[in-house]
């Protein structure tokens, strides 16, 4: 019984921390379209844990405006849970006895404003091999309806999903099912409570509120319970600042104001979205299918000029920017090359990962050890491949690729974190900058012949790629590559930009 009580408390804290992250947008002038955030709303049932409303509507990956985001949070004390497409029609998945997630979704869509989105947030993960994993987008958690409704019969893999869900909801056609599923997003394998605490602190600090670092008890958890008990759980741009003043949450030290700028080549996370005003947002979504360039598209003649023109316009408007890169590593590298130290633009980077976005700066004090840098001769070619293994060790993959596809590469320069690759291999902005400095220095020390290219393969956060791009002039001509993570093409590398 005691364990169940603790789990209940932790579930409420998880929900509260997501609420505070969303509510912080009510103090951000760059997110003026966030007009209301509610903690434990009065409906729609099961998608009422946190509700965010927008005016004007937030643009979705499909281009349609989202009027509101409704979040259903499913929390456990451990991450051992797994689920599949059949669980979405089983009430037990929600800890219920009568209604399934899809039934709750159907009812919620009838009660919520038109063009609402509905997100399941869970620390559970999609079971290995379950067909649901093939229709949930890897970049924004939405259902890939083009894959689910692929024209196959009911006995096919996708057809079995459609039939189970149609029969469960009492629907007579795929069109009715598609209408219900539109707007559903699944954010599986979410972060820990401690990571969410850090995310709240980062979000609060960015808008001038006091973080809570010093005590084991996180005071904002209790504050969420208190406001719900007082029936003060719905906030807008007028009463949320009132609450913060009443509670003395504002930081007396004024924070530097940065202008939010966004570049998107794939959609944002279904849980965390840092947006900019339209003139400071570059969307390249029409050029990509998930993370892969659409058929007939071209990195060099379409993507690169668009990014460069946009950044030139931004530099003409702002001297201090907060850069959101929901984009490929190549685009982050290109952005760094355009916004180098000599550009006169002060840049703070919004780094995204498993948790909420955090701010990375090259002087943020979050430093770490130098990397291990090794060199390997693989042929007679005069060019080199810079292989950066921060998130995953990709040396073997790159070696195989360049031997087969890029014979002009005769040398591999490998950059590896001291403690090995992983999601926590970089401590923060200062550490990312140090690693980028070391990688660029290794290329310079290689002393390639005049005109020889450095072929750049990065497995790591975009903040690192941005900092590395700031060294582009010193590194000489660079050819950048992207990996086919989703397996849409061949699970191999593909060239993107050639930067002379």
Structural overview:
The chain is of the alpha/beta class and 500 residues long. Helix content is 32%, strand content 23%. It has helices at residues 2-23, 101-111, 145-148, 157-169, 174-181, 193-206, 219-229, 239-246, 299-317, 329-338, 395-405, 429-446, 462-469, 472-475, and strands at residues 34-39, 50-59, 65-74, 82-83, 116-122, 125-126, 184-188, 234-236, 259-264, 281-283, 288-289, 292-293, 320-326, 346-351, 358-360, 372-377, 383-389, 409-416, 454-459, 478-483, 493-499. It has a six-stranded mixed β-sheet, with helices on both faces. It has a six-stranded mixed β-sheet with strand order 16-18-17-19-20-21, with helices on both faces. A five-stranded mixed β-sheet has the order 10-9-13-14-15, sandwiched between helices. α1 packs parallel to α6 (193-206), α1 crosses α7 (219-229) and α9 crosses α10 (329-338). The radius of gyration is 24 Å and the shape is globular. The N and C termini lie far apart (65 Å).
């Amino acid at each position: 019984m005691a364990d169940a009580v603790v789990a209940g408390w932790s579930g409420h804290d998880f929900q509260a921390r997501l609420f505070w992250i969303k509510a912080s947008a009510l103090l951000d002038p760059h997110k003026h379209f966030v007009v209301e955030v509610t903690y434990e709303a009065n409906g729609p049932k099961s998608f009422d844990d946190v509700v965010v409303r927008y005016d004007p509507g937030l643009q979705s990956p499909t281009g349609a405006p989202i009027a509101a985001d409704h979040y259903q949070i499913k929390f456990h004390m451990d991450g051992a849970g797994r689920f599949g497409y059949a669980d979405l029609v089983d009430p037990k998945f929600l800890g219920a006895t009568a209604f399934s997630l899809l039934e709750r979704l159907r009812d919620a869509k009838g009660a919520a404003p038109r063009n609402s989105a509905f997100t399941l947030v869970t620390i559970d993960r999609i079971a290995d091999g379950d067909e649901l994993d093939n229709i949930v987008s890897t970049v924004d958690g939405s259902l890939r309806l083009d894959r689910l409704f692929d024209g196959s019969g009911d006995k096919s893999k996708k057809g079995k999903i459609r039939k189970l869900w149609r029969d469960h909801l009492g629907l007579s056609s795929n069109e009715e099912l598609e209408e219900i599923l539109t707007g559903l997003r699944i954010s599986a394998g979410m972060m820990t409570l401690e990571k969410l605490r850090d995310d709240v602190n980062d979000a609060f600090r960015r808008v001038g509120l006091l973080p809570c670092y010093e005590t084991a008890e996180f005071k904002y958890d209790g504050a969420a319970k208190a406001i719900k008990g007082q029936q003060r759980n719905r906030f807008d741009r007028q009463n949320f600042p009132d609450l913060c003043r009443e509670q003395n949450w504002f930081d007396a030290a004024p924070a530097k104001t940065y202008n939010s700028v966004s570049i998107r080549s794939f959609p944002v996370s279904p849980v965390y979205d840092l947006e900019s005003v339209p003139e400071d947002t570059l969307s390249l979504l029409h050029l990509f299918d998930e993370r892969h360039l659409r058929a007939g598209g071209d990195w060099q003649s379409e993507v690169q000029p668009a990014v460069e023109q946009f950044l030139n316009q931004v530099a003409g408007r702002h001297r201090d920017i907060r850069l959101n890169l929901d984009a490929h590593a190549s685009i982050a590298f290109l952005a760094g090359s355009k916004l180098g130290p000599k550009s006169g633009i002060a840049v703070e980077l919004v780094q995204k990962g498993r948790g909420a976005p955090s701010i990375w700066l090259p002087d943020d004090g979050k430093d770490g050890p130098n990397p291990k840098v090794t060199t390997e001769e693989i042929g007679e070619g005069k060019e080199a491949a810079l292989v950066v293994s921060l998130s995953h060790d990709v040396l073997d993959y790159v070696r195989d690729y360049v031997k087969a596809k890029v014979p002009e590469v005769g040398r591999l320069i490998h950059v590896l974190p001291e403690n090995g690759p992983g999601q926590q291999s970089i401590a923060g902005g200062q550490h990312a900058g140090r690693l980028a400095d070391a990688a660029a220095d290794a290329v310079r020390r290689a002393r390639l012949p005049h005109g020889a290219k450095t072929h750049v393969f990065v497995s790591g956060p975009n903040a690192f790629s941005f900092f590395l791009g700031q060294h582009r002039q010193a590194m000489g001509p660079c050819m950048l590559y992207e990996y086919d993570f989703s397996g849409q093409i061949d699970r191999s590398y593909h060239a993107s930009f050639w930067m002379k």
